[in-house]
Amino acid sequence: MKDFSEIKEQVKAKIGEVRDGASLSEFWQNFLGKAGVIQGLMKEMKNVSPEEKPLFGKAVNDVREWAQELYRQKQEEIKKLELNARYEKETVDVTLPALRRAPGNLHPITIIKQQMIDVFAGMGFEIYEGPEIEDDDHNFTRLNVLKDHPSRDMQDTFWLTEDLLLRTHTSPGQIRTMDSHKPPIKVLVPGKVFRSDSDATHSPMFSQMEGLVVDKGITLCDLQGMLDKFVQEIFGSGTKTRLRPSYFPFTEPSVEVDVSCFECGGKGCSLCKGTGWIEVLGGGVVNKKVLENCGIDSEVYSGLAFGIGIERITMLKYGISNMGVLFRNEMDFLEQFKA
Amino acid sequence: MKILQSWLKEYIDIDVSTEKLVEKLFGAGFEVEEIIYLGKDIEKIVVGEVTSIEKYEGTHLYICHVNCGSYGEDNLILTGADNVFKGAKVPAAVVGAKLPGGLEIQPRKMKDMMSYGMLCSGGELGIDDNWIKGASVNGILILPEDAPVGEDIVKYLGLDDYVFDISITANRPDCQSVVGIAREVAAFLKKPLKEPDYSFTTTDKTHGEISIEVIDKDLCPRYLGHYIYDVQHFESPQWLKRRLAVCGFGAIDAIVDITNYVLLEIGQPMHAFDLDTLDGKSIVVRRAKNGEKITTLDEKERTLTADNLLICDKVKGVGLAGIMGGLNSEIKPQTSEILLEAAKFRRDNVRKTSRALGLHTDAAARFEKGVDEYGVEMGMARALNLVEKLGVAKISSSHFDVSAGENTAPRTFDVTIEKVNSVLGIDVPQSEIVSILKALSFGVSENGSTLTVTVPRYREDVENYQDIAEEVIREYGYDHVIPTFLKTAEVTGGGLNFLQNKELAAKKFFCSCGFYEIQTLAMYSKRELDMIMLPENAPERKVIELLNPITDNLSIMRTVMSPCMINVIADNVKNDRSEGRFFELANIYLPKNIPLTEAPEERKILCLGAFGANESFFTVKAEIEAFAAANGLTLRFERGERCWLHPGITAEIFCEGKSIGVLGKLRYEVIDNLNVAEGKKSDLNIILAELDYSAIQSLYKQEIKYTPASGFAKIKRDLSVTLDKKTLCIEVEDEIKAASDKVCEVVLFDHYESEKLGFGKKSLSFSITFADKADVTDEQADAEMEKITARLSEKLGAARR
């Protein structure tokens, strides 16, 4: 029986010399390729006696498989080496600054507006945005702010023509909603409003959010219940509301809604001017005249409405004391609202 | 509105503290904005009697010994005033006393002598002759002889009193007076109101000639006149002058003071005409003629229009209705016959006239909010009562009452307890409701749970069950409201709709690209249009102007967003910012016609602004394309033009064949004119985009349908061409697509310019993908490449490399 130990020694020596892919494929060609040494052994088959042929063939195969196994091991080893070299070469200083700039963020008014929408959306409110340029009818008359009534003076109006104006509140959204929808109605009308007023606490343009619910059996208690939930979501779970009488032509009774001061918990501090309460919004039971102006049967349906100044809530939430800074768009200011 | 507490107490017994009263007023809907204590900051100043006085030789001072009773019977006080005399009663501030303004009295050396106190003038106590005679003199306030020595001056002078500045809501004009507030206090304290004395006696005398005619009854529904005679002219008594003074009225003459007093007390503005000056002894109430003139009491000549209501005699205007009297008919020292006026004028007309003339008076303020006919009657009665009480004049029997015939009977309607409680959501007991209404002077008769209520004549605001519910709850207390959550309402779905969600997502997209959201005002001025060099005929110059802007800077509605963005960038550059990105999503206002006859288009614009050395047209283009791609939209950029943008770096952006905006670099001329330090301008690089968001959102696809991949083989080929460098990439792409209907994608992957290519030439390399309704073969791809090459050569003179 022919001994292949010499060949095996050769294979062992050569595979030991292999360092990279090129020498590995050279090894394959020399030993395992069609013209390789091991394939060459098969040519000797013809010199082997017929009874020895099967044994010879098996021996050659054993050598081949043994060499192939060595080859595979080496192949793995080299692959690993090459990858390691690549990783080494590609290594970077991960603490170098990135190529992209930091992200921007939404304007604080948008952030708060969105938080407010989320609270009411959860209560089943849809969102409607009406036009900013309105007519007298929608902004005043059908809201029961009659032509000769002094309540017109409550809001300093920017007029564009005898009839057209920059809406002074988001309340026209009530009329537009009731014109196009029948009860049950739960709608939120956020948007920009305009009044000819400008100082530390007033901007000629600001944002409001109107809320309107029209359904059967809506009461003043529902207004407080709903607003309690709202202020707790916005100002924290311990926050309470207080209603006190006020006047809006489109609600009756009308109330101002104060929240317990979230800064001092109601003990009195500079934010609440020592009163323990902060005025945040106005509302009331929808005046039946407004429902009737929109063709809704006030004997069957009743409603509640409220209007919230978004800037007011924004300023309270973020501790901003001067309204002007909201519209000055200084990056020092804008970039603080990442959340 | 200012209300004096002691005046209020004349009509109602107030047995609660001032703090409690203010709290109760607040609870009833009357916010006290300011509480002014008249004796504020005055301490240890007492009535003193000067027991001796001598000149301090070699000085201008006097040495006084002052008896201050329990505050020391012999206080040595030096004074510089020379109206003090032995036996005089004076306000004496002893050691430790405090004066308004924070002055504290300590022993102090004057010349070589110690003074232990100070004698006070009226001014030092914050009062004048209207409060007490002698308070306005240049010297020490000499008090009446009977002033009790040692009494606290605050108490003695009646300064231990409060003025409440109360804000009255527009629905309660009836509360613009002492009596109006007293009624409310009476209701919540459950005490009877002591009505003012409205009684007076008339003589038998009548005046046969006087006539009153109201021509424009729509503007003057009620006009009362009363003739008084034998008018005496004298100063009003001190108590009356004091009350006028704290409310801001100077005392003039008893009869004039009475008219002001009635305005404050009853809320009814009154006017007194000198009858002698009325031609024909007549009053005619009519609209002014256009251009008609009147000189008002403030001695200003005013030119009127037919919108102004004028009180006239047979010949001329004698008063501006509800606002101010005419100078020609004013009360003079010799006036002996007077026609007193109490009227109701239409509130919006008074308001318009007052605004138009810039003439704001206390009378106008009352009329604008509204007076009621009950007040007209009571005002006249009270004025005549005071005329008689003070002995100002004799009251004739000539009374005139011209009415437009408006119903002055008290309003009556039925309301059920259930209906009232259905508004409130709580069960206020019937007995409570009735008691509250009665306390508010409503007439109430009960029939089961139905109440027939009779509304007081001065409560023109109460018309139905909702108004009754408000009366009930503000008296019953809002703390009785029990929060509930829509027990009976139907379930509704809520939240943002598709487009609202997309809009929020759009904002968030640009935030994550490094843009900060800004909010600018929707108004600006024509200077902003000039700033971006808009020519006179530019469509953006067709603007909506405000009729009543607060400032010229905010006088037009914006038609283009870029100026707002440029201003914000300039402001930040001024604040030493060298780079930044902003966006705003807001409306521009595009009138369909000027002057405006219908609501304009409000178009939502997404405006982007980026500045800094690292920004370029392409940094912003990348974000816009990514935004479009994220919304399933494909954009096409073509060379564009805007007068404020760089002529060579401006693109018009199209989507589905429609222009949806513009992107470009701000022109140097615009930067040059910015209010920014010269040093910061030179390398200021500003990229601006205005995207028509209204148009973009109309292209959003709400429904998405999955399409399986075709599975057919595509082939990708590269094509490099040399061509004129002015040819745009998009033109080449268009021709490639036009040449072959198998092209499904063309992407530029390389471009360069080099002299080696030839003068004015550049090279563009595209990767072109072919696809078809079957596998694309190499032969087909070759053939398509041939067609493309031929077309590029023919149309663009491009040579394949």
Structure in a nutshell:
Chain A has 339 residues and is of the alpha+beta class. Chain A has eleven helices and nine strands.
Q: Unreliable stretches of chain A, pLDDT < 50, 5 or more residues? A: none
In round numbers, the mean pLDDT of chain A is: 91
Shape of chain A: elongated
CATH-scheme architecture of the largest domain in chain A: 2-Layer Sandwich
- Counting DSSP E segments of at least 2 residues, the number of strands of chain B comes to 37
Largest sheet report of chain A: 7 strands, mixed
Assigned CATH class of the largest domain in chain A: Alpha Beta
Q: Secondary-structure element order of chain A, as H and E?
A: HHHHHEEHEHEEHEEEHEHH
**CATH fold-type name of the largest domain in chain A:** BirA Bifunctional Protein, domain 2
Q: What is the number of helical segments of chain B per DSSP (H or I, 4+ residues)?
A: 21
CATH hierarchy, class of the largest domain in chain B: Alpha Beta
Radius of gyration of chain B: 41 Å
Percent of sequence in beta strands of chain A:
15-25%
Please identify, by name, the CATH architecture of the largest domain in chain B: 2-Layer Sandwich
Q: Helix tally of chain A?
A: 11
| Average pLDDT level of chain B | 95
Strand line-up of the largest beta sheet of chain B: 25-28-29-33-32-31-30
CATH homologous superfamily designation of the largest domain in chain A: Bira Bifunctional Protein, Domain 2
Structural class by helix and strand composition of chain A: alpha+beta
Give the helix level of chain B as a range of percent.
25-40%
